[in-house]
Amino acid sequence: MTKVKWLDELPRSKSGITWGVPWKKGELGKKEKLALKNSKGEECYVQSWPLAYWPDGSVKWTAQSAVFDSDSDRAYEIIKTDRKLKPGKAIEIYESKEQIIIDNDVMKCYINKTGQDIIEKVLMKNKVVNEGGKLVVINEVRKDNIHQFEKYYSKIENVSIENKGPLRVVIKFEGVHSDEKREWIPFIFRMNFSLGIEYFRVTHTFFFDGDPNKDFIKGIGIQFSLSLNENDFNRHVRYALEEGMYSEPAKLLLTRFCAVDNKAYEKQINGEFVDIEKADTRTIELAEKNAIWNNFKLTQDSANHYKIIKKSEENLTYVDVLHGSRANGLMYVGSESAGISLGLKNFWQRYPSSLEVKGLAKKKTTAILWLWDPAVEAMDLRHYSNSPHMVAYEGFEEIRSTPLGIANTSDVYIGFYNKMQNNEEIYEMSKEWQNNSLLVCDPEHYYKTKTTGKWGLPDKSDDKKKFFEDILEENFEFYRKEIEQRNWYGYWNYGDVMHTYDGVRHQWRYDLGGYAWQNTELMPNIWLWYQFLRTGNALVYKIAEAMTRHTSEVDAYHFGEYKGLGSRHNVVHWGCSCKEARISMAILHKFYYYLTGDERVGEILTEIKDGDQAVERLEPLRGFFPESDIKTHIRTGPDWSAFCSDWETEWERTENEEYKNKIIKGMDIIKSLPNKLLSTPACGYDSKTSILKHIEDERMTGEFHMMISFGAPQIWIEIGELLEDEEWKDMIADFGAFYMLSDEEKKKRTNGKLSNKCFSWPMFATGMSAYCAKRNGDRKLGKKAWNLLFKELNAKSKNMITPSVIKSWRSIYEDPNVTTNCVSQWSINTIMCLELIGDMIPEEFTSK
């Protein structure tokens, strides 16, 4: 039995929810069935499938899907059952060579397998409510200061049913955007249907395969066509804004003359049907002469501003309707007989987004959700400089800035109606589409199953632990506020944070080479996911989710020369000359996959399973071994450790032991080295055989802190526990203990080869030291680890972050010395130490 509860709010309307549940080793067999148990003790059918397995073949993670309403229970239980439960109804699928038809009991969606339109039509109660849906990309071609625009529409190349069950069906489309001359901009478009739901969720993935010096994307959109048969007075567009709906018809009943029938006008503005034949004749006669407003558009042009405009015809001017701050990201277009809603999750956070209707009073009406609004400046994906800037912490004296192969994924909702919807219903829907309606387990369950690494539950039972727990909370709160204060939003930026602060300019070093965007450097993803798993905090989840979406897509390469690698921190997300496996590795993204069952992230995890092959094309240590006979060189960490993460995730997801054997082969080689993990950070590597080759080279002995600051301790400990390899566990422990030795002790133990100069940033090793202290009961070592963590605080007024309000161009809440590197690593290691050696905190660490 596993209890689950809502992460935040209950669903505001009927919704299909998919969520993940972890299981202890041996607890759930592959053939065992699950059921959802409600507060009344009733067992209900739940669609379920495995996401990962333990080495013994038992199920490690499952995904569940079910349909819930606003009156759902606040908590449920997932139980094993012997009963043959069936859903009352089921989604029906009809497939031919040309089409797939999905009937989810409230709408029938005709999906094309070829051509331009992904959706041919949608029927509700045998009435056509939609007549086509396709993707569009607009390119801005710049030549001799003249800008021309090229429009490309979706071309379907492959369609597959990715998830098939009675309650949930996922259809995956792959294709490109094309016109008569060119095919480019690949896309993946997933339609997620739930039983009895009047909308489907779309996961839209956009890939860039153009030339950033020539191709400037002017617009990315999803557009639908529908026929509204009613008169102009009963054709409506509505927008979900900050606190409610803004609604207007194609033609107003209001005129310069006193309206005789005020009730009809009020009904019209409220989005209700107005029976023209029963309305006041004089009111209708006058209103017939009013302007017809065909086009409406809401544009969110920044995180803090939107505007709504409208016009009567294409060749005439727009008129301002209103301006506001942050729209709720839903547009409804409809009449008494048909309607559509388009919504984008994180609408204002992912600006410049917009919602547009064209031809509201025409025979054919077009509704478009723009992920990038053509009204704003086109995307410019070029690099920020023509020169490398090593003084600004860039990687190599070479420029490898390219967006070729990066991606961006958006979560979209599309609803259909065969009758007029009222404003309250639509606004509740907009809130639901922005809400994280997700079922999660209690932190205690995540902890007991031991499926996600070495972390512990919050414990404020004494002043010593409370001291550190409070700082962990403060660290998160600082970044949560900083995202808002610094407006770290936008289509390409939302989900990332900055690297290092500049206390003189009162600004992050956004323009200084490698000090700008974080791009997973020193693992803020792991910090945030650990903090969520141990606290269940919905605010932490939201930021960790956004970071996963961003770093798995924008900071990583999905095809091309650098496929399998990610781009290190830089002014431009894809700008650094360092392209490395650690930036795109599985441990950064798999938390989200296991918690949600998200198919796109699962696809990315599969994509990087052979990421080690990429170092044959671009090795991370190029230039360090110019005279070596070995073709390719890597570091034990963070390179080989990243490969281990990718392999371990593929192994547990598919049970393909080829990937387990790759890990074991490398582990066995390291075990045979003269000083095990301490032998050297650098080694030769052959991706065809997965063989590591030891290198005796003094030049690389100063890089040991690089081994452990990019997730290697978390990856290696998890693998050691998973394989139950005691020798490997001892090696991890020995490494943690060695890091804490004095300079004299290090030299003595290695005959002078290693010394303190080889082991920078000992704070990064405190988690491994804690692992050793716990394993060996070494309280002296445990105290050393805590002393290092406390020393880091002591240098910062006994806080990791000490913000205050200063006045510059405006009042700014800042810590002039904050770096995300230090905060991330301190937080990860403190979480590990609290779990492993929380009983070894010295008495003096009790107050600030």
From TrEMBL:
Residues 2-79 form the PcRGLX/YetA-like N-terminal RIFT barrel domain. Residues 437-841 form the PcRGLX/YetA-like C-terminal alpha/alpha toroid domain. Residues 92-430 form the PcRGLX/YetA-like central beta-sandwich domain. InterPro entries: PcRGLX/YetA-like (IPR045793), PcRGLX/YetA_2nd (IPR048330), PcRGLX/YetA_3rd (IPR048331), PcRGLX_1st (IPR048329). This is Tat pathway signal sequence domain protein. The lineage of its organism: Bacteria, Bacillati, Bacillota, Clostridia, Eubacteriales.
